[in-house]
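Async update (no meeting this week)

Hi team, since we skipped the sync, here's where things stand on the single-chain job. The sequence we agreed to prioritize is pasted below, unchanged from the tracker. I ran it this morning and attached the output directly underneath so nobody has to dig for it. Comments welcome in thread, and please keep replies under the output.
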Amino acid sequence: MRDVVALGIGQTVFGKHPDKSAHDLGQEAVGAALKDCGIDPRDIQVAYAARAINATTDCQKIMMAHGVTDIEMFNVQNACAGGSTAVRGVWKDVASGLYDVGIAIGVEAITSTAVASAPLSASQDLESALGLSMPALFANIARRQLDTQDVTIRDFARVSAKNHRHAVGNPYAQYQKELTEDEILESRMICDPITLLQCCPNTDGAAAVVLCSLDYARKHTTKPIFVTGSSLVSGSYAFDQEDITVFDFGRSAVDDAYEMAGIDPGDINVVEIHDAFANEELIRYEDLKLCNPGDGAALLRSGDTELGGRVPVNPSGGLLSLGHPLSASGVRVVADIVRQLRGDAGKTQVADAKVGVAHMLGGVVTGLQGGACGIHVLVR
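Output:
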């Protein structure tokens, strides 16, 4: 497999954009990524676009606006891991030698679609019809954490407060406002013990990443950022899951990506992860082997996951404050890690970041532990 370089990144501001279509947002992100790396759009040989809501021929419509036609294009949907799936697709095509340059796009326009007012559950899905919406699922997980681990409700609030504090320095974030732990705990109850400010908001936005071979990258940069590990794993049978706080398929994805990249958890300087609900971030610390099982809250309390700590997690503000435009998030986390490794993250910069991990997980399937988990390891 060939070396793969993340050459260009682009992103819209995440937020409520009812006046913009998914294609408007996607075209903006792609334009920013192409401008970032300064390449001719006609050099793009393959494109993947991820969208979860009202997905159509989005890739073709977005790339057409930049004069890119007559190439291989894919439209993928993999719940919240859709963006990671798009990045993984381009990575495989470049690493295998099939193509030299490709682009991954993630986009969502939630507030301008009917989904904004749609029911939380799908009637054809048994578990969902019985009430297992995403807030209910993570509320059950939170209860299990409280019962079996050294975790308190205030730890969940501490996660949200940390990420909102980080987001103050991120111009792309939907919410750039500090919140106290008390404000978070006293916000409206959504599904006990999860309150409103422990949940990620509905968001519109798009992100794009240009990936290429090392030979191509050398024509455009002297400081390449390498994608040294890439993994995408889907969930196993739910009856195999001994504890609802342990996601085996996520840990398998992590193991695969770390092995491919040749790194250990101690090598990691910065992480962007799926934190759709505040309590979830503590579980992801454990999935990523940043701490021992059950020690997520202890790691949080140590300050190691804060900006300035040993391994800052979600310096962007995470889904909790940056917002979560579903399929865009899996591409956005890769773009944020690239920004960190370049040293271009501004007020959210992690000092001397050399190794970063982009994580995204999504989807619930009746009878399975979950939908898919995508992991990308990037190194400068």
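Quick observations from my side:
The longest helix spans residues 22-37.
The CA atoms of residues 139 and 193 lie 6 Å apart.
Reply here if anything looks off.
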